[in-house]
Amino acid sequence: MFTKVNEKVKKELKERAKRLEEIEKLLTEQHRPEFFTGYRAVKMINEIADKSITSLSEEEYERLSKYIRLNSAKFRTRISRSMKQAKSKQFDFKKTVQKSVQTFGVPFKLYYKKPIVKKTRIVCILDVSGSVIKYAQFFLQFIYELSSVFVDGVKSYVFVGDIDDITEYMTRYPLKEASKLATSAANISYRAYSDYNRAFRQFCDKYLGFVDRHTVVIILGDARNNKNESGLEYLYQIKKRAKTVLWLNPEKQSKWDTGDSIISRYKPHIDGLYQVTTFNELVSFLEQVVI
């Protein structure tokens, strides 16, 4: 009798677990159509994810922004896992031996070292001139959805000529509103021409103290400097203090070093240069490189 009851309870628990698993899958499915608007949503996301961000309509832009919000937990999980210094369990020989003394030298339990999470701070330096402002807004939304992953947080600065700290906007307001404020209300002239020399010099004068050996600096810009000085000496100062300096160029690589673009002059002084013109390219960068 008890055997039959136990089997019945086990079967019921198994069925409940299966139902919970199905519910969880529905709630976390990466391309769940109900997250968007209708049965064609999955196909639409796949199509617009490879479109240039500047060519997105308002509806498409909002659709991708919503996708980021709804899937941010999944992205945070992926990145936090890869930020662990130990990819697998490391046997703690010393602790195992010490504990075995309590059992007369017989190690009844094996002990493993806890994975160490890297102390990473993200510093974003973003060009918000007219040609790249939409990329900056989109990037800010994404990076702040992931900000809880980074132990020392995220600090952000925007520039055209002058540079300003917009971290407060990103931490006080809802992300969609914050990204718009950051790219329209900072204490800079948005109608000026891009001047990387001036921006890098001001960053070194005002904010270089925030950069240390745990800092990953991400620069987003097309390096179109309007025939101004390059500011390489200031970029070198940033690189010297930072753990890593990465540059995201929102232009197609075929346009680099054409016209007033001087991106190749910066390349020897950074750790990585990446084309990020689409949502998929941005996701790939964040998953594979920043961490």
UniProtKB/TrEMBL annotation:
Pfam families documented for this protein: VWA_CoxE (PF05762)
Entry-linked InterPro entries: Uncharacterised_CoxE, vWFA_dom_sf
Protein name: VWA domain containing CoxE-like protein
UniProt organism field: Caldanaerobius fijiensis DSM 17918
